[in-house]
Amino acid sequence: MTEVTAGSRKKRQIDYVCLVGFQQARTCTNTAATGRTILFQTTAKDTEATMAGQKIRIRLKAYDHEVIDSSAKKIVETVTRTGAKVAGPVPLPTEKNVYCVIRSPHKYKDSREHFEMRTHKRLIDIIDPTPKTVDSLMRLDLPAGVDISIKL
């Protein structure tokens, strides 16, 4: 980290790569007087070089196993089209929540009914993603019942 003083304003330059929105920035400059962050964009060659050693982990959750399987298939197809390597989809253990409800509103406590809610999970790893891969994943339309979490 380097500090630069320019006139009455004090600037801090951070020497690591920042991910802002969908674009990468080589240097983030924070001006202490204004509190604004100024981003300097990099070229496509620099972006590919910084993303070369990265791995994106996508975790899918859904109540319906058919919907989650079709979503995982869509993600794998789009990633392989862009040229990145894919590991998965790996089926994770299904979470099962069982709820016990008394059938009668007044008596007959021994008569109960069980309801269960199953949460299916899948894990997909994208190895060495390109900017084109990230772009195509952001544009991908998936069904409403699928919960997605992405980690870099």
What attributes does this structure have?
152 residues, alpha+beta, Alpha-Beta Plaits, 2 domains, five-stranded antiparallel β-sheet, four-stranded antiparallel β-sheet, 3 helices, 49% strand, disordered N terminus
- Biggest beta-sheet profile: 5 strands, antiparallel
**CATH homologous superfamily of the largest domain, by name?**
Ribosomal protein S10
Please identify the top-level CATH class of the largest domain.
Answer: Alpha Beta
Q: Would you identify the regions where 5 or more consecutive residues have pLDDT less than 50?
A: 1-44
What is the CATH fold-level name of the largest domain?
Alpha-Beta Plaits
Structural domains: how many: 2
Bulk shape: elongated
How many DSSP H or I helices?
3
Q: Write down the Rg.
A: 24 Å
From the N-terminal CA to the C-terminal CA, the straight-line distance is 23 Å
Average pLDDT confidence is 75
Give the CATH architecture of the largest domain.
2-Layer Sandwich
Helix proportion: 10-25%
Question: Beta fraction of the residues?
Answer: over 45%
Question: Helix/strand-derived class?
Answer: alpha+beta
Order of helices and strands: EEEEEHEHEEHE
Total E-strand runs: 9
GO cellular component, one term: ribonucleoprotein complex
GO molecular function: structural constituent of ribosome; tRNA binding
Protein name: Small ribosomal subunit protein uS10
Keywords: Ribonucleoprotein, Ribosomal protein
